[in-house]
Write a structure and sequence with these properties.
alpha/beta, Spore Coat Polysaccharide Biosynthesis Protein SpsA, Chain A, seven-stranded mixed β-sheet
Length: about 230
């Protein structure tokens, strides 16, 4: 299984109200939006630990929230906590890559906004890290839910001028890879949750799914979202 030879880095923020999932407000309160973020983070992390990657790293912001981040998870989970550096997302990924490449040849970066990601998509993303030094798996809004890098890639160069939150992130990253002379491959697309309609689509998918992990996520979200978000 490719994951046993792959380090996975989850790029995330501490679920502080007013600092995470802010585009879900005012449909949700800042506290509810933060609770959704926490649900996504804990659910995805639990799913990933079950797959036994070479190392699972929670790369978090802000750095002073280390103890609060640790407290979100079961202490028995095999997690590494790595604070994010200042800068845009590209700088933060590049800094994490710089610290992790000495002990891993391949890295897979993920966010937490696609918590119901099918396992087949994740396995495909892992597989692609063996096929090209740069791989990404897109989202419908022009971004990507995963980025695979090999140790031959200078992540700082690759990500230096990516226009984050523009809807052009995937295209810009692939063009940057080409400009640096690195082959790149694209994986399977999946939805992410940024805005209220995205969250409603997620709830609909979860309600129609027969995957046990999806039922678990739906149950957790029922504890933090108002009843009006659910049908039946």
């Amino acid at each position: 299984m490719p994951l046993s030879r792959l380090a996975i880095i989850v790029m995330t923020k501490h679920p502080t109200p007013g600092r995470v999932k802010t585009r879900l407000t005012p449909d949700l309160t800042p506290e509810q939006a933060a609770a959704v973020h926490a649900c996504f983070l804990k659910h995805l992390t639990t799913r990933l630990t079950r797959l036994n990657p070479a190392e699972l790293i929670i790369c978090f912001d802000p750095p002073e929230q280390l103890q609060a981040m640790r407290a979100l998870f079961d202490a028995t989970l095999p997690l590494t906590f790595l604070p994010q550096c200042p800068g845009d997302l590209g700088a933060r990924i590049a800094d994490a890559a710089r610290q992790l490449f000495p002990r891993h040849d391949r890295l897979l970066f993920m966010g937490v906004d696609s918590p119901d990601l099918p396992l087949a998509h994740l396995f495909k993303a892992a597989e692609l890290t063996e096929q090209a030094p740069i791989s990404l798996s897109p989202t419908p809004d022009g971004g990507y839910w995963s980025l695979g890098l090999s140790s031959s890639v200078d992540a700082a160069q690759l990500l230096r001028n990516i226009p984050w939150s523009s809807g052009q992130e995937a295209l810009a990253t692939l063009r940057a890879a080409e400009g640096l002379g690195h082959p790149s491959v694209t994986g399977l697309a999946w939805d992410d949750v940024d805005h209220p309609p995205d969250l409603r689509r997620l709830l609909t998918r979860l309600g129609q799914s027969d995957v046990p992990a999806d039922a678990e996520l739906l149950s957790n979200l029922r504890h933090v979202l108002p009843a009006g978000w659910f049908f039946g």
